[in-house]
Amino acid sequence: MNDPQAPRGGPPREPLDVPGLQRRLADFAAARNWQPYHTPKNLVAALSVEASELVEIFQWLTPEESARVMDEPDTAHRVTDEVADVLAYLLQLCEVLDIDPLAALDAKIDRNERRFPAP
After folding, report:
1. Alpha helices in 70-100 (DSSP H)
2. How far is CA 87 from CA 47, 91, 115, in A?
3. Pairwise CA distance, residues 5 & 114, whole Å
4. What is the pLDDT of residues 47-77, one digit of tens each?
5. CB under 8 Å to 38, separation ≥6 — which residues?
6. What is the distance between the alpha carbons of residues 101 and 19, in angstroms, rounded to a whole number?
7. Which has the closest alpha carbon to 35: 48, 25, 46?
8. Is 38 in a helix, a strand, or coil?
9. Could you tell me the pLDDT band of residue 89, with boundaries at 50, 70 and 90?
10. Cα separation, 69 vs 75, whole angstroms
11. How many C-beta neighbours within 10 Å does residue 21 have?
């Protein structure tokens, strides 16, 4: 059986985790000397653009059509790519601002549970 995390023709990769992905993104940017452009302002702007590209896919769909968006291979590929772009910029922003995204989400869920108790 093929390892889904192994690049085609390459050795298996380590299991995916947030710090590992942030490291890969930082290495990718460093290899291209892009770090000077990865300011919080620029990363937030890029995040907004990528989120808008994701919205664009769903913009005129009915609720029923949007629920089936992953059924069509070309659209599913576009959605997956835009989700990846949004996540990449969000993780880069967290890295630059020294935010642990999982801890931030955990704390936000805690606050929401207190603000909006279940009936």
Report:
1. 73-97
2. 8, 6, 27
3. 38
4. 999 999 999 999 999 999 999 999 999 999 9
5. 29, 92, 96
6. 10
7. 25
8. coil
9. very high
10. 7
11. 15
Q: Is 55 helix (H, G, I), strand (E, B) or coil?
A: helix
Rounded Cα distance between 90 and 114, Å, is 26
Round to whole Å and give the CA distance between 55 and 6. Answer: 31
Using alpha carbons only, what angle is made at residue 14 by residues 17 and 96, rounded to the nearest 5 degrees?
Answer: 40
Question: What does the alpha-carbon distance between residue 11 and residue 51 come to, in Å, rounded to a whole number?
Answer: 33
- Give the model confidence (pLDDT) of 10-21 as tens digits: 677 778 999 999
Q: Which residues, at least 6 apart from 40, have a Cβ–Cβ distance to it below 8 Å?
A: 93, 96, 97
**Tokens linked to 117:** 């108790």
Take residue 112 and report the two structure tokens written for it: 């929401």
Amino acid at 61: L
Decide: pTM greater than 0.70. Answer: yes
Residue corresponding to tokens 């930082």: 26
